[in-house]
Structures are given as structure tokens and as C-alpha cells.
Amino acid sequence: MESELLSLRAELALLERDNQRRLETFERRLSALETQLQRRQVEQPVAVVELEDELTLLMGKPPETPGTSEQIQPAAISTAAAPPQLTPSQVHSTSKKTDRPPVSTEWLQEGLTSLLAPALEPLNRAWEPLAGFYRHYQRQGKAPVFFMTAAGILALVFGFAYLLQLSFNAYLGPAGKVTLGFLIAAATTFGGVTFSRRIPHMADYGSGLIALGVILLYLCGYFAGPYYQLVPIPVGVGLLVVTTGLSYLLALLFQTRVVSMVTLLGGATMPLIANHFDPSAVIYLSYLLALALAMLHLSRQIRWPQLAMVTMALSAGMFEYSISNLDETAATWGPLLILHGFFYGFAHYALRWISTEEIESKGLEPRRLVIIAANLVLFIHISWSLAPSTTAVGVVWLLNLLPWIALALYSRRLFGYSTTSDSARVVQNMALLHGGLLAGLAILALCGPALLGVVWCLEGLLLIFLGARFGFISVRSEGYIALAIAGLTMLWQAIAWVASGVAPAPVLLSLNADAGWGNWLALCAAAFGLTHLLRHCADQITPKERDVAALADDAFGLFLSASFLLSIGIFWPQGMWLLALFPMGFFIWRGQRNGSVFSEWLGLSHYLLLFIPLLASASIVGNFHFYDQIPYGKIAGIEAFLSLWLLAALYQRLEMQSHGFTLALNLRKLFYALLPVFFLPTVLHKASDYFPIAMWLSCAIALLLYSHLRLALLKQELRILVAGASLVALFGCALREFENWQGMAMSGLLLGLITLAGFLWIGRGLQQKPLGPDWQLALHQALKPIFPLAFYYLAATLFIISYALSRDFGLALLLSQLYFASLYIFKPKLAPLRNQLMPFYMLSLRLFEFITLLQVVAVVTNSSKAPLLGLYNLTALGIATLLVYRRFFASRAVWPGRRLFNLWVLHLTAIPVYIALLAQLLETMWLPAISFALVVHATLLLFQTLKPDTQKLLKLSLLLFAMAALKIVLWDMQDFSLIQKIVVCMLVGLCMLGAAFQYQKFLSRSSLPQ
Question: Has residue 674 got a pLDDT over 80?
Fold first, then answer.
């Protein structure tokens, strides 16, 4: 129960929303009808009655009886003077009181309506003209007459047809029936004529009777001819022709649309139904042509353009039906000639009597445009079907070009239009359009594929010229379309020609001077012609067409370049790439002269063509080394390299300021940047032994270029080259030592030392404030980051030379430490070293640590060099101690924040130093000596804590005491002999007591007041 209650509530809510929607729709229609009633007082009673009927239907009232409706009408008429003022609340209250149909029935009706509405949409469109025809009679109050007349005519036609088929030969034979039929048809027609002439208000009824009589005449002709065969075929044809002519005269005389439509339909279809023209389509098509022309004239006379459109559609259908049944052996020139009559007849109808006022207000009528388009399509389609060959149809279309040209030139004489009128311009426009389309189709049919694009191109240019000459934008549009199709056709053939000539490297393209080459030349000529044509007619074209002119000019440049290069490629395949510099310069100059950005960048893009032979040559030899390339590859490489400089020179000569000029300047910078290094790949590939020397030569060239050009790029390159040359020199020495390389490593190392010394001298690198000419000051700024590198390079050189002379790695490290410590102590004020004091300081300490590591390794491995390494390590320890404890000028830049850390590292590193020395000097007592040395070391640290700046070494001192104590207790006392224990304990005790006494003494002195 509960679920049923919920479903009923949901259905009730749905019905309320639906009712509300329908009420809103009714209110809108009510307001619209009230507005109409106020404007048209005569139609108010009918509108009110319709409104009440609609309201009744909407509210669901049952239909009223006729008596009731008669009683309501006076009231409705009386209220017409004052329009009813129904408020929405009143309507809503009224709707609540009325009885409604069942909910399911209402929902079913609305659902079916919503489902069937889309399906019936085509029928609704076809029904609209008939409904309009009915409303025409309804406005005249003749709607019942319309329905009864139409129904009566239809019933009589069927009844008369059945009557003629009825067999009552005992009373009346076929001849009698047909004769009686003709008499009845004549009487009916005469009656319609009488009604139309003598009773003017029944003219429509009389037109219906005349139409009925004509239909009966067609039926009688059919029964007299093929049905009963009472008369021969020519007589039957004559009867139909006479009937058609009579009906045409009646339609023309009384200007009735019904009779004219019956004339058209009966005259066109009855001969085929009667099979009178079955043996010869020419006779029927001639008859159909005469009928169509008569109907066009009748349409003009009775001012009913729909008749012309129906005539057009019916003629097309009948013509297509007639030629579809032709025998294959039958001649087609007769129907083709008759087709021209249809073509020019309908064209004359569409182009004649065009009103200038109509053109100015609405433009050309849509009906005329439909007839023109359909006529042209029909002519092209049927002529293509009837022509015996493609050449014949091409000739036919080409010959039809002449009448349209004559019409375009002599429209005033042919149609009587004024030369300057809009009507004459429309006729000329249509004539040019027809002529252009027929000419294009004729060319398509007559020309071969190779020349098709060229001829279409000429036609497109001609149409554009004529459109600009006469001011017809539609003709120009057709010309643009033809030209675009021609351009795409020729471009496709030209690209196919190039694709067919692809060959293996190094030729790449093997071309012949045939149609493909001609298409490239034709494209170039077409773009040139279109550009100059549009510029010549600049005052007659639109802004968009001016954009087309600019686009055509750009296309001309592209096609000109392709034509030039491909023409060279026909005779010299490799030359088309090598000579790309000529179109590059030409198009840059052309861009400067015309102000064309596209032309300028098109010229610049030719530079990329030089890389094609480079890549082809590299694919043959298998690498990119210049020395190995084939001659064409080398020439292209030289051109590409020199063009980097020539482009900027060309821009400067032309005085161009553009984005391309910026690119050219950057390319020139790239040229200067490549000058110092362009030979390095070849040296590395062919003479790698001299590569370190070549690197320093590159540095010298870069310095020379920078001193003259002052380019920031060269400055950065110089710094990179110096760093790279230094690394190459050092790496070469390493290769010679460890890989047995036979190159000039030492020469490169010494040459680098000389080069860096020269840089220091030239750039005044040792002066804090250099003095000299501007070029020397500029060199100083450029070489300033390199000056510190010279001192590091000198250290590396010192290390390598000392190692090479002594073959002692420890000595080389000690000399390097001594070198850095000397610079730190004695030369801290040198300009290049002001920012290098911290690295020098840290390097000296790290080198000491590295020597310590070497000593420990030598002692552990019992190396013969252990004593010498110990001596080196003591010296390094002394240097490191001097740096850590002695205050120098550079200490202010190094000590703050890092001295305590360096002290810890120094003392921790000193532990393995004296452990290794004691292990070397003492063979049996070295372990007790180590314990004693730790105590001494800790004691010395303890004394250092008396100074304020080293008080934090107390932790390290205590740590060493703890290490010594643990070693003595846990290790020494277990393994020592009695004498060793006595010696260790006494020495440690005496040392500790003495240290305590001295510490207390120094502590007391330091605590006394100053």
C-alpha cells in the first residue's frame, strides 16, 4: 500500500507540472491572439470562437452540440468589441472546475505526438504549400467551395475513366463512348469558360471546371488512341497536341494557375503514358521543349514563378527518362541539340526581366538562382551522357562558351538593359560564370593530364581579369577556385616529377626536362601573373584579395627558387645545392626592396640547402671529418662556413634592419667563434700527437680575434679554450705516463706554461690596478678569470716535471705543497691570488694528509721508500703546522671560522705520522714509545689550552690522554715485559708530573693581574 501511495503521489506531481506547462503555453497564445484582435477588428469574432474552442479542448470539455454552438456565437460576436480580459487565476480556476480526460489517454496522446513529430517533418514541409493554398481560399470565405470543387473534380475524373472502360457495346461502342467523352469534356470546358466570363465572383470555380474539362480531354485522347486504337498514332499525337494547345490558350486567356498546372502535367506525361513517342525520343523531346518554353512564357504572364520551377523539375525528369531508354545504336546528336534549347530557354527565363530595384533591395531572387544552378547542372550532366566521346563533349562545351561571351559583351542589346544598371551587371556576371565553368570543363575533357593544370591556370587568370574589369566578385571567386585547382594539380605533378628523379648519393636527384619541369615554370609564371594582375587592379579588389596578392607574391618567390635550382639540377645535379647562395642573396635583396619578410626568410632558408651535400658526402665516407669528404662535400662545407660571415656583410651592404639582420649578426659571431677551433677535429683525427699544441694555438687565435673584435662570445670561448687546453695538456701527460702515448705531451705542457705567462704579461695579470691602452684593459677583463688558473697550471707543471725527473711521487707532492704554501705566505697580495688564498691554504693541508697516507701505506707494506716518505712527511707536517699556528697576512682571510677545525685535523693527522716514524726507528720498544708519544702529544695540547684562541683543544687533549691510558692498561701491561712496564710507567709518571708542574706554573702566571 505504501509503495502504491508513493507512486500515485509521484504521478500527481508529474501531472501538476504538465498542467502548469500547458497553462503557460495557453497564456502566451492568449496574449498573442489579443494583440491580433486589437489590430484586426474584422476577424475578432472568429478569433474569439477559436480561442474558446481551444480553451475547451485544453481543459478537456466534451464537444458541444450544434445548437449550443449556435447559441454561443452571438455572445462571441457581441464580445468582439471588448476583448476578453481573462487573468491566469481565472483560467486556472476554470480549469479546476472542468472535467479532464483520463490521465493515461492524455499521456498517450502527448507521447505519440512527440514521437511522430520528427518522422512527419518532411510531410509537414510538403503540406505547407497546400495549406497556404487552402488559407488563400479561407481568407476569401471559400474554403468549403475549395474542398468541394477539388473533391468533385477528383471524383468525376475517376468516374469518367471508369465510364470509358465500362463495356456496354450493345448500346454504345468504343467510338460512341469516346465521342460522348469528348462532348462531355467540351461541355465541361465550355461551362468553366462561361462561369469565368459571366460570373466574375465564381472565376475560381470556373477555373476548376476548365481544369476538369482539360483532364477529360486528355482521358478521351488516351482512350481514343492506345486504349481502343480508334485512331492511328499520328492522329492520337495530334489530339494530345491540340488538347495541350487548347489548355495552354485557356490558361493564358483566363490566367488560371490550376489549368496551367494541368496543362504542364498532362502535356508532359500523357504522351509517354500513351506510348505515342516511344519509337523516337527526338519527337517527344522536341514536343517537351515546346511545352516547356510555353510554360515559361505562361509563368511570366500569370506571374506565378512556381510554375517555372515545376517546369524545370518535370523537364529534367522527362529528359532523363527519355534518354535512359535510348537504344545504344541510336544517334544522340538530336537529343543533344534539343538539350541546348532547354538550356538557353531556361537561362533566358532566369536572366530576363530582372528588376534593378529588386537587385538593390533583396539581391537576385532565390528562385532564379535555383533555376540557373539546376539548368547548368542538367546541361552538364545530360550532355556528358549523350556525347559519344570525351573529345566530343569537350568540343560541345567549348562551343557553348561563345554565346555566353556574346551575352557578356552585348547584354544591353540582347535583353534591353541599361549598360550601367545593376541588371546588366548581374547578366554579365552570370554569363562570365557560365562561360568560365564551361571553358574549364571543356579543358578538362580535351586536354591531357600534363597540360590540364596549365590551361586551367590560364582560365583562372582570365576570369580574375574579367571579374576585376567588370567588377564581378563572383567571377573573380570562380577564377580563384580554378587557379587554386590548377595550382594544386601542377604542384602535385611537379612534386611527382621531383620524386621520380630521386637517386642515390652523391647525385641525389637525376632530372629530365619534361612536363614536370614545365609545371614548375608554369607555377612560377602563374604566381607572377596573379601578383601583377591584382596589383594592377588594386582599386577594384577587396582587402582580402590584396592579401591574396601578397600570398601570390610569396608563392612566386618560392616557385622561382625551386624553378631556378631544379633547372640547374637538370644539367648539373650537384650544382643545384652548391649554387644555393645565389637565390639566397637575391631573395634577401628582394625582401629589402619589397619589404617582404617572407622573401627575406626564404632567402635565409637557402643556407640549409648547403647541408644536403654535406650529409650526402658524410653518408658515403661514413664520418663528418672534412679531410675525408668527397669534393662536393668539401665545397659545400667551405661555402657554409664562409656564408656565416657573408650574410652579415650582405645585410650591412643593403642597410637592412630586421630580425634576419639579427640572425645574420649571430651567424657572423658563430663564424668568428668557429675560426679558432675549425681545424681541431681534423688535427685530432689525422694528427692527434699535435693536439695539445693545436689547442694552445686555438687559444692564441681566440685571443687575437677578441683583441680586434671585442665580442662577448669570443671572450667566453677564450676562457673555455684555455681551460680545455690546460686539461688536454695534463691529460696528455697522464696518457704518456700510463698509456705510453707517443704524443707531444711535455711540449704541450711547456707551451701552455709559456702561453699562460704571455697572457699574464699581455693582460697585466699581476697588477692590482692595470694601466695601459684600452685594448690591453679589455684583454685584462677578458683574461681575469684565467689568471688564477695560470698558478694552478704552474703547480701541475711543477708536479709533473718533478715527478718526471725524480720518479718520486711523494717528493712531487711535497714540492706542490711547498709551492702552494709559499704563495700563501709570501705572495698573498698578488692580484690574481687575492681570491685564491683559501684554496691554497686548504690544498697545502690536504697534500700533507695525502703524504701521510702514502707514508702509512709504505710502512704497512714495508716499502723501501718508507724512510724517505717519513722525511717528506715530517717536512709536510712542519709546513702544515706553520700554516695553522703562525699568523701571516693571509691568515685574516682564512682563519676565521675554520682554524679550530684545521687544528683538530692537523693533530689527528700528526698521530699516524709519529706512529709510523716510531715503528720505523724502534723495532722492539716502538709500542711503549707510542704510548709515551701520545702522552707527550696530549700534554702539549694541554699547554696550548692556556691561550684563549686554543682553549677548545682541551677536549682533544683529554681524548689523547684517554687513548694513552687505555692503551697502557689494556694493551701494554698485558704484553710488556717487566722492564718495559717499569720504563713506561716511570717515563709516563715523570712526564705527567713535569707537565703538571709546568702547567700549574704557566696557569699561575696567566692568572696574575696584568
Answer: yes
